[in-house]
């Protein structure tokens, strides 16, 4: 998989000329192409709110000329469904919308706002759907736009969009894409050699929901050792009751050569495990190396700090500052226990494809967060 085709569906967004004011915003965003189009997508997810700003070159459809200009997130833990997290999410949503429209001068009709399937699933699971409705209404009121579209996407819609937005066309029908989110995991593949039918894969487990379930089991003993012990129990239960069934039911094993993972934990593992591949949007991994990584997260987490990683880089031509900043960004999003939880879930799913006689190729997609939102932007752009 080549870097420039990692999110190939992005290149289908229409291109247009913009006013001098908007070109100023492009320059501020360090654009790469002439006569390019800029679109933005804002997603309310389980863990927080994300803003993705994309530049599309005029020959994007044929040449793959696209550029991720901005990828910003605000951690608000929305799926805790408390008043403080509600307010934090509302503020984050409003703040990123304002950033897109005011600071970057992106017209409001080119800024798309959605609520992810992870939020929808968790809200329905906990009978908290009213929180989602209140958030949408409050946001519309805050921006003074009662016609603003804020769609709550369902699992199959998001999973299909992710595939279209992340997997290059050349690998479209041999790749099983699995997005591990905060509140749920979803994905799938196109089994019939066309995009008319999408076979869905889904789990009600995500990085945050695994961590939350583990914390509840810890009760009065909050030590890391007990967390690790309870995490293994939670993951074993998830594997036995949900993961094995979901993989078998999907029929993906014989149909797919490539198993690609996206989501925050995929980005984190790829960044910490292979910091030397900082410029690669897709990183190949093996099951065994992710196992070793998972073990060290618990026993030797210092090995994945920015200082330790930079100190032990063998290639002296690498951009140490860029790598250190990206590693710091991982740790600002996920603490040790969240990394352990997400990596543990990743391994339980990978394990189902680690055959003795047939070996699958595993890939971690680092920029997957712009995938489904970008495909959503494309499908909702008026041409």
Description:
This protein is of the alpha/beta class. It folds into two domains: 3-155 and 370-380, Nucleotidyltransferase, domain 5; 171-369, Exopolyphosphatase. Domain 2 (Nucleotidyltransferase, domain 5, 2-Layer Sandwich). Helix content is 48%, strand content 17%. The protein has 15 helices and eleven strands. The strands form two sheets. It has a six-stranded mixed β-sheet, with helices on both faces. Strands 3-2-1-4-5 form a five-stranded mixed β-sheet, with helices on both faces. Strand 1 (37-44) and strand 2 (48-56) form a beta hairpin. Helix 7 packs across helix 14 (336-351). The protein is globular, with a radius of gyration of 20 Å. Mean pLDDT is 85; it is low at 1-27 and 59-65.
Rounded to an integer, what's the Rg over CA atoms? 20 Å
Known CATH architecture of the largest domain: 2-Layer Sandwich
Proportion of beta-strand residues: 15-25%
Per DSSP, the total helix count is: 15
Query: N- to C-terminal separation?
Result: 30 Å
Overall CATH class of the largest domain: Alpha Beta
Class derived from helix and strand content: alpha/beta
Integer count of domains: 2
Order of adjacent strands in the largest pleated sheet:
8-7-6-9-11-10
Q: Helical content, roughly?
A: 40-55%
Give the integer mean of the pLDDT values: 85
Shape: globular
The CATH topology annotation of the largest domain reads as Nucleotidyltransferase, domain 5
Say which CATH homologous superfamily of the largest domain is assigned: Exopolyphosphatase. Domain 2
H-E order: HEEHEHEHHEHEEEHHHEHEHHHHEH
Number of strand segments: 11
Q: How would a textbook summarize the main sheet?
A: 6 strands, mixed
Sequence stretches where pLDDT stays below 50 over 5 or more residues = 1-27, 59-65
């Amino acid at each position: 998989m080549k870097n420039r085709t990692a999110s190939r569906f992005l290149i289908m967004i229409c291109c247009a000329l913009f006013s001098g004011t908007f070109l100023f915003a492009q320059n501020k965003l360090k654009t790469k192409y002439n006569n390019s189009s800029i679109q933005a997508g804002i997603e309310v997810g389980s863990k927080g709110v994300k803003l993705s700003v994309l530049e599309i070159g005029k020959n994007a459809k044929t040449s793959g000329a696209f550029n991720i200009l901005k990828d910003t997130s605000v951690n608000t833990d929305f799926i805790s469904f408390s008043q403080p997290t509600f307010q934090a999410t509302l503020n984050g949503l409003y703040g990123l919308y304002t950033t897109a429209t005011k600071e970057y001068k992106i017209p409001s009709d080119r800024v798309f706002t959605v609520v992810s399937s992870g939020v929808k699933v968790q809200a329905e699971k906990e009978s908290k759907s009213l929180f989602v409705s209140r958030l949408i209404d409050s946001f519309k009121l805050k921006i003074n736009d009662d016609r603003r579209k804020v769609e709550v996407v369902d699992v199959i819609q998001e999973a299909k969009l992710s595939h279209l937005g992340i997997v290059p066309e050349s690998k479209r029908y041999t790749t099983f894409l699995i997005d591990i989110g905060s509140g749920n995991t979803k994905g799938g593949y196109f089994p019939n050699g066309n995009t008319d039918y999408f076979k869905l894969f889904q789990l009600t487990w995500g990085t945050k929901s695994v961590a939350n379930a583990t914390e509840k089991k810890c009760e009065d003993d909050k030590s890391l050792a007990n967390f690790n012990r309870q995490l293994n129990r939670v993951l074993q239960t998830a594997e036995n009751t949900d993961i094995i069934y979901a993989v078998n039911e999907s029929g993906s094993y014989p149909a797919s050569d490539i198993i690609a993972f996206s989501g925050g934990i995929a980005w984190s593992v790829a960044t910490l495990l292979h910091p030397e591949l900082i410029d690669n949007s897709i990183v190949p991994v093996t099951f065994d190396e992710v196992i070793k990584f998972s073990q060290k997260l618990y026993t030797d987490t210092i090995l994945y700090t920015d200082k330790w990683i930079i100190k032990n880089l063998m290639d002296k031509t690498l951009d140490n500052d860029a790598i250190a900043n990206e590693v710091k960004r991982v740790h600002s999003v996920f603490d040790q226990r969240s990394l352990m939880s997400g990596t543990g879930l990743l391994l339980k799913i990978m394990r189902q494809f680690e055959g003795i006689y047939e070996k699958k190729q595993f890939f971690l997609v680092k920029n997957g967060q712009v995938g489904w939102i970008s495909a959503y932007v494309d499908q909702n752009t008026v041409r």
